Amino acid sequence: MLDLLAWGDTGWGDELVRGTLMTLAVALCSFALGQVFGALGATAKLNGGIVTRGIAEVYTTVVRGVPELLVIYLLFFGSGNAIMAIAAVFGYTDYIEVNAFTIGVLSVGLISGAYSTEVIRGAIQAVPFGQIEAGRAVGMRRSQIFFRILLPQTLRYALPGLGNVWQLTLKDTALISVTALAELMRSAQVAAGVTRDPFLFYTVAAALYLVLTSLSTVAFDRAERYSNRGVRRA
Question: How far apart are CA 150 and CA 231, in angstroms?
Answer without folding.
Answer: 11
